[in-house]
């Protein structure tokens, strides 16, 4: 992921910051408890495509 792109991307729902999880290829919004996938280097910032974080996941990077 491009570092400049990561700086400007925000959660489409709450407009909050996102944490990049390199190994999972996801962008995580802690307040919304959603993980947006990154496919072929492109973030998919659609609520319908996001994965809801489980209760046991901390939402950390």
Automatic annotation (TrEMBL):
Looking at the Swiss-Prot or TrEMBL record, what is one Pfam family this protein matches?
Answer: Trm112p
Q: Which domain of life is it from?
A: Bacteria
GO CC, one annotated term: cytosol
Q: Which residues form a coiled coil?
A: none
PANTHER family, sorted: PROTEIN PREY, MITOCHONDRIAL, ZGC:162634
The record's comment on protein family reads: In the N-terminal section; belongs to the LpxK family. Belongs to the UPF0434 family.
Q: What is this protein called?
A: UPF0434 protein FHP89_07715
Could you tell me which species this protein originates from? Denitromonas halophila
């Amino acid at each position: 992921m491009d570092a400049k792109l990561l700086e400007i991307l925000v959660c489409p729902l709450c407009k909050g910051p996102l944490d990049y999880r390199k190994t999972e290829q996801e962008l995580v919004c802690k307040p919304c408890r959603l993980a947006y996938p990154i496919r072929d280097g492109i973030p998919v910032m659609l609520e319908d495509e996001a994965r809801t974080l489980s209760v046991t996941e901390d939402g950390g990077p």
